[in-house]
Amino acid sequence: MRVGVELLERVQDGKAEHFAFPLEETGRTPRRSPRWSARRGAEEAADTEGNALGRERGQFVRPVHGLVMLHGERIVPGSVLGIESGRATRGHRFQGERTIVLNNAGEYEQRLRDEGKVIASFGERRDDISRQLHEQALKLDAVLSDPAKPAR
């Protein structure tokens, strides 16, 4: 299986950003191809993002701090951009636990949310921010404008 950069999900945490590819396959064991696919996908993403900002090949805008590759409870061995895979991830740099050691792949999102104070899903985070903005606007008797639509 090859994982293209378009399948990776950008996960942002304030100033930190990482890419995730959630994959669940029942009855299969990890093979060499997921490691290769993860490395290639991350390198393509770094090249795309870096080139747009005049950076060298294989560089992200922000540093890559870790790589979680788990299959159930097992670490999928490998490295991407010089980072070895493991089971430790990071929470929000100010509000959450600095290091979260995962027992299995299935607990990633919930533990990152509960202990790390990070919403891994871009869509969920966007919706939460929108909800908070609308609640605050209501309290202030204000109206939010849509930046995609011209002001009248």
Task: Give a verbal description of the structure.
With 152 residues, the chain is α+β, with helices and mostly antiparallel strands. The chain has one domain. 30% of the residues lie in helices and 16% in strands. The chain has helices at residues 32-52, 108-114, 122-139; strands spanning 9-13, 16-20, 70-71, 74-75, 79-80, 83-84, 88-90, 99-101. The strands form four sheets. A two-stranded antiparallel sheet has the order 1-2. It has a two-stranded antiparallel sheet with strand order 3-4. The radius of gyration is 18 Å and the shape is elongated. It starts with 8 loop residues before the first strand and ends in a 13-residue tail after the last helix.
Record the SSE blueprint:
Blueprint: E1 9-13, E2 16-20, H1 32-52, E3 70-71, E4 74-75, E5 79-80, E6 83-84, E7 88-90, E8 99-101, H2 108-114, H3 122-139
Antiparallel strand pairs: 1-2, 3-4, 5-6, 7-8
Overall average residue pLDDT: 76
What separation lies between the terminal Cα atoms? 50 Å
Poorly predicted parts = 49-56
Number of helices: 3
Strand content: 15-25%
Total strands: the figure is 8
Characterize the biggest β-sheet: 2 strands, antiparallel
- Rounded Rg: 18 Å
Provide the structure class: alpha+beta
Report the helical percentage: 25-40%
Q: Which shape, going by the Cα principal axes? A: elongated
- Count of spatially separate domains: 1
SSE ordering = EEHEEEEEEHH
Read across the widest sheet, the strand sequence of neighbours is 1-2
